[in-house]
Write a structure and sequence with these properties.
The chain is of the alpha/beta class. About 50% of the residues lie in helices and about 15% in strands. It has a single domain, classed as 3-Layer(aba) Sandwich (Rossmann fold). Strand 3, helix 4 and strand 4 form a beta-alpha-beta unit. The protein is globular and about 40 Å long.
């Protein structure tokens, strides 16, 4: 079991080493300038998006998840972050078109920057990982379906939040104070 765990960590390291720092920095800058941040994804990509939205909320950002009952309409100075391995998810394409109509900014996290969503996005972070539809030659993965993409996205977006908040004093205390407390 330990050997499998270490192999997965090595695979994630290989993906992370191929990420483009300029893409991540530009993506982060757009997030930091947004009035509000919206996050969308389908399936497990949607779960990674919800985890990202939660961390942004803990950090004090005004953030919403597409499809939730309290999500308002997107406006000109807002940003929508879409997470899609294929870059061709139907519901995300519909949301992306609405973003364009509203004048908001579309940020995409994907393996496929030349996809339909990639052509609509204002900024894209390419994550060179395996998905259920795409199995790259490098890095090779022992993981099924989109596990490698999902895990890589989770780590990447956590790193984005850390980058956005690292200059703030006592961010851990601040985030802890924002954590849900109705239990």
């Amino acid at each position: 079991m330990k050997k499998t765990h270490l192999k997965i960590l090595e695979e994630l390291k290989q993906v992370a080493e191929q990420l483009d720092d300029n893409q991540i920095e530009s993506f982060s800058n757009k997030l930091n300038k947004a009035e509000r941040i919206f996050v969308a994804g389908e399936g497990r990509s949607g779960l990674m998006g919800k985890a990202f939205a939660m961390r942004l909320m803990h950090a004090g950002y005004d953030v919403f998840v597409k499809g939730e009952t309290i999500t308002p309409s997107i406006q000109k100075n807002d940003v929508l972050v879409e997470i899609s391995g294929s870059g061709n998810s139907t519901s995300l394409l519909s949301a992306a078109q609405q973003v364009k109509k509203s004048g908001a900014t579309l940020l995409l996290v994907t393996t496929a920057p030349d996809s339909e969503l990639g052509h609509l996005a204002d900024e894209t972070i390419r994550v060179p990982a395996a998905t259920k539809l795409r199995r790259p030659k490098e890095p090779v993965t022992i993981q099924p379906m989109g596990n490698q993409f999902d895990q890589s996205v989770h780590i990447l977006l956590d790193a984005v939040v850390i980058s956005l908040t690292q200059s703030r004093d006592d961010i851990n205390h601040y985030m802890k104070e924002q954590h849900e407390n109705l239990d």
